[in-house]
Design goal:
Number of strands: 6
Radius of gyration: 13 Å
Structural class: alpha/beta
Largest sheet: 4 strands, parallel
Number of helices: 4
Distance between the termini: 5 Å
CATH class: Alpha Beta
Strand order of the largest sheet: 1-3-5-6
CATH superfamily: STAS domain
Length: 106
């Protein structure tokens, strides 16, 4: 796997508080030189609108650093939110880590 690829595995809810924490974790990874970040959502049980806002802010920050952001393993609730808001067209989303690894070539 690429040395500049970092993986985050949040768990529980992505709401305002946890979304802000996730934003800070991504900012720290970018400052440390990460060129690509995978957020594995396997252990996320629910995301509200502020969580979606946090993911959108994360994507913007990653892009301003000329890095890449990937998401994988969205549960049904997350997938529906992404589809309803058309964010599934904005984010690079993979069904799971295996599909990500095959696509990225790691």
């Amino acid at each position: 796997m690429n040395a500049t690829l970092k993986v985050l595995e949040p768990s529980g809810l992505i709401d305002n508080i946890n979304g802000n924490q996730l934003r800070q974790e991504v900012a720290n990874l970018l400052e440390a030189g990460a060129e690509a970040i995978l957020i594995d959502l396997t252990h996320i049980t629910f995301m509200d609108s502020s969580g979606l806002g946090a993911l959108t802010a994360i994507l913007q920050r990653v892009r301003t650093k000329n890095a890449k952001l990937y998401l994988c393993a969205l549960n049904d609730q997350l997938r529906i939110i992404m589809e309803l808001t058309r964010m599934d067209k904005v984010f690079d989303i993979f069904p799971d880590r295996t599909a990500f690894n095959l696509a990225i070539g790691s």
